[in-house]
């Protein structure tokens, strides 16, 4: 499942919280250092694997914020530096770059099972009237694929009363260890119809759009869509039959 990697791009950390604060106004911010919210989310996305099924998911996503610490979108983190236009986040969480189920493809069920890796992450973000730029890195600390990824993204936030819209674009590099873990074919997985395949590092591109509406200071609804374009190192794999993936979803967020 690749859901949380999509959410990290399209519903950035604190975006719902910021939307709620925009609705409340600068003079009506929530009191105290602790904040809790729950997001109910429905998401669907194409699979690029041979014989892969469309991934449909409905799940709750809890969000907990206490001072500079947070748990959100599967990440346990700390905002180590937070200035007016700059932030540095350190976090640990699941690596959702690839699909550990290989699209639930019946044709690939005989391949070695994949596990979700745990990564240590560093993210820098810089924002202004021109939008927000983010740079991030993630490294496997669970000895699953032992690889790393780098990312750069840009988004622009537009508000119209209770409404907001946020287009985004990102580029993501995955090391060859990551690519081969999710898309490679090892010697033990070779069959008469599946050739051995080992790739180099890959660069993927992604376009996204999120729109939302603040029902009240405690409730927001959001919809999002994304299109990801995969590197030839991935699409050339014998277990992959597409070079792009389309996904979209809706979410409801309640802040306590």
Compact overview of the structure:
This protein is mainly beta. It is 12% helix and 49% strand.
Describe this structure in words.
This protein is mostly beta strands and 256 residues long. Helix content is 12%, strand content 49%. It has 4 helices and 13 strands. A 12-stranded antiparallel barrel has the order 1-2-3-4-5-6-7-8-10-11-12-13. Strand 2 (55-66) and strand 3 (69-72) form a beta hairpin. The chain is globular, with a radius of gyration of 19 Å. The chain starts with a helix and ends with a strand. Residues 13-17 and 19-30 have low confidence and may be disordered.
User: What structural category arises from helix and sheet content?
Assistant: mainly beta
Strand content: over 45%
Overall average residue pLDDT: 88
- Integer-rounded radius of gyration: 19 Å
Shape: globular
- Total number of strands: 13
Instruction: Kindly report how far apart the N and C termini lie.
Output: 29 Å
Order of neighbouring strands in the sheet with most strands: 1-2-3-4-5-6-7-8-10-11-12-13
Counting DSSP H or I runs of 4 or more residues, the number of helices is: 4
Helical coverage, percent range:
10-25%
Mind summarizing the main beta sheet?
12 strands, antiparallel, barrel
What is the string of helix and strand elements? HHEEEEEEEEEEHEEHE
Low-pLDDT residue spans = 13-17, 19-30
